[in-house]
Amino acid sequence: MSDRSWIALIFAGLGLAGSVAPAAVALWTGEPLGWAEKVSGVIIAGLFAMAWSWVDHLLLGPSARLAADIQDWLTGSAQERPLGDVGLHSLGALPDVVGHLCDAARIERQGLRQAARTASDRAQEQRAWLDVALRDLAECVVVCDLDHRVLFHNRAAERLLAGVASGFGLGALVPRASLDHALDCLKARLSTFGKDGEGLVGTTVFACPSRSGRQLLHGQMSLVLGPRRVITGYVAVFRDMSENWADLDPRDAVRQALTRDLRGPLGSLYAAAQMLTDYPDMAAADRSKFVGVVAEESVRMSNRLEAMAAGSSRSAPEAWPMADIHFSEVYASIAATLEHRLDIKLTMVGVPLWLHGDSHSLMEAFLALFAALHAHTGSSVFDMECMLGDRRVYMDINWKGDPVADHRLTHWLDAEINTALGPQRVRDVLDRHDSEPWSLSKRGGFAALRVPLPLARRAQFTDAEWTGLGSPSSLTEADIRAELLVRANVGAFAGRKLDHMAFLAVAVVTPLGAAQAGDRRRITALGAVRIEDGRLLTARSFERKVAADAEGSADGKPPLAVVLPQFWAFADDAVLAFHGIGSALGLLEDREGQGIHPLVVDTMMISSLLDPIEPDHSLEETARRLGIRVGDHRTEIGKALITAEILIRQIDRLKESGIHDFGQLMDTVRGRLARAEALVES
Amino acid sequence: MARSVLIVDDEPNIVISLEFLVRQAGYESRIARDGDAALAAVAERLPDLILLDVMMPKRDGYDVCQTIRANPAWAGVRIIMLTARGREIDREKGFALGVDDYVTKPFSTREVVELIKHYLEPAP
């Protein structure tokens, strides 16, 4: 039964009760039932009937019509027109208010639909433009999501990658490993350079065969970044380089002839000819030998040249696909694979650099070398370090033990590896990078396998990166001295050798003037990197941006209350190293407030100890003096890395000055501070 | 007693010239055709200087150089590397493993003689 029926029944009941009520009263009082009672009963019943009629026509009816209209509107059948007229009613402003609400919602919906139509039209238009722009491009262009599903491709892609038009994923058309490796490299680069280095992410190139195996493809990949720099997909551009590949073999042969094969016979020929010229009076027997050499070597050279000429009839217009690679990308791939395959722990030390090469085949070559080293040395712990030379970047694989004999290394270089292009020797990959590795001893009982690689085409560090490196202190020198003196503790570390201690180089970023304003706890970013046994462990770093307010920020930055416990857990028992303690006082006071007093060294203070006549001990000048190339100083982690490099070099110089352990260093610092105080007071 | 030069090369035609030059310069010459023979010759009697080819069978010149430099008893011997490998990185590797000088084939015989004299007869 509907609500309306219930209300009608109630009214009917009430009307009936009202109509019989006067008669009931007369009966109850014993008075005779007169006309007045009869008339009043009829009037009461009539009044109830009228009341029902009013409720039904002016309240229930309009409410029901309004509800039905809203229902129609909600279900979509009447969204394009205003709500219907509810007629005469006593609902007050309710129908008008509901009408306005629906009108507003209708207009909003129309706007949204229009915006969606416009966006869709624009997307179609852009797609059409893209299609037109890419239609005649010889390169095949494919846009994919992170699962390698093809979102867009041009016509060249249909010709080069059979199956792309049928909806196959890109991973089914070219080796998925090549795509994953290129994607991992770009992700690692994005992660390394973070927000400030978007322009550095760029593209990466790789070579791979098509799935059919009939073509060799030159691939180039770049990331598609969505809002907040989330990676949403990638663009891959492919070119058929099968003909170039065929040309590489003869070209390699020419290169080998020029650098190696022809030089032997030419050397013999040249020497014999000089003998005959320089010693005209030599004995006939000797002369005969040299004439024989000339004849024999001429024939050898002639044969070799003929073979070369036959092999190099085609030109080789392009070199092997190589790109600038950041060392951290190569490291990330190698470390993950080594840990998975051989349970080898690989640590990156030093500052990562840019180099130029074929990332995937280099990774496979390094994996083969690591496997051989692991089998030969029995070691499962290696460091990998990148060093900058004048014309090359040197990748050192370090381990505790003896160097590898060159004949053994030669054997390892002949090992076959599986690259994206099929089996090749480690030597072939390294030759393509104009590399010749060797093994050497290092201090501290370490040995290394050194692999030289080409320098990146891009600059390692731009000039702009040298600017703004100073460490302006917001405190006076006396304040700094006082703070340092308070913290010149040695704890239980008095006798610890400096080059066998764990340090944490820390950079604290505070807003300009915060400390001067007495607000030492306003930290906007923290960066730290660990040093152990004199080695800079780049992979063990800490980097956090800090939100200004206690709740965190909309872009995901955590508040200081969250970051500080993470930082102290990361710091563990390492001695903290700052370049200028001024900006770090808030950090230290946080820990000291918990009753824990971290041990601290100040590289700026050590610099003034080591080079007392130098006027400038800023981070930039100290780094310059110690021959440290300053990399990305714009980030807190960049500053921490520079501080760490400074400390490592300072420890070497301290040892040369007879300061070997932490206690000696702190004694020297205290002495220096006390002398400075005395000078000020006098 | 004449100073001795050990010529280590598997190319007989280059050995002919080098041996002639060394003798003409007034030094004693000995010949080794591969890396193993070179180390045996060094162990038998330490030469004053070694003309060492890089690419040889069994044991290459880098390996011979590394082995010699690892033995303190052989520390005084001078090593001039002769190689057909013309890349700069080969030269760099040679120096890293302890050679004193480096000559790329083809070479001027006069320069080789001058180089030998430079190391065996240092200026007073």
Notes on the structure:
The complex is a heterodimer of chains A (682) and B (124). With 682 residues, chain A is an alpha+beta fold. Chain A has 5 domains: 1-135, no CATH class; 137-241, 2-Layer Sandwich (Beta-Lactamase), CATH 3.30.450.20; 244-311, Helix Hairpins; 323-454, Histidine kinase-like ATPase, C-terminal domain (Heat Shock Protein 90), CATH 3.30.565; 463-681, Ribonuclease H-like superfamily/Ribonuclease H (Nucleotidyltransferase, domain 5), CATH 3.30.420.10. Chain A contains 20 helices and 19 strands. Chain A has helices spanning 3-29, 35-75, 94-135, 155-160, 176-193, 198-201, 242-261, 263-278, 284-311, 327-342, 359-377, 406-413, 426-432, 477-486, 560-571, 585-592, 603-610, 619-625, 636-656, 662-681, and strands at 140-145, 150-153, 203-209, 216-225, 231-240, 323-326, 345-349, 354-357, 381-388, 392-400, 416-419, 422-425, 438-442, 446-454, 502-509, 525-532, 535-545, 575-578, 600-602. In chain A, the strands form 5 sheets. Chain A has a 5-stranded antiparallel sheet. A 5-stranded mixed sheet of chain A has the order 7-9-10-14-13, with helices on one face. A 5-stranded mixed sheet of chain A has the order 17-16-15-18-19. Chain A starts with a helix and ends with a helix. Chain B has helices at 12-24, 35-44, 61-70, 88-97, 109-120; strands spanning 4-8, 28-32, 49-53, 78-83, 101-104. A 5-stranded parallel sheet of chain B has the order 2-1-3-4-5, with helices on both faces. The relative contact order of chain B is 0.18. Chain B has a single domain (4-120), classed as 3-Layer(aba) Sandwich (Rossmann fold). Chain B is an alpha/beta fold and 124 residues long. The two termini of chain B are 19 Å apart. In chain B, helix 2 (35-44) runs parallel beside helix 3. Chain B contains 5 helices and 5 strands, in the order βαβαβαβαβα. In chain B, strand 1, helix 1 and strand 2 form a beta-alpha-beta unit. Classes of the chains: A alpha+beta (682), B alpha/beta (124). At the A-B interface, helix 7, helix 8, helix 9, helix 12 and strand 13 of A face helix 1, helix 3 and helix 4 of B.
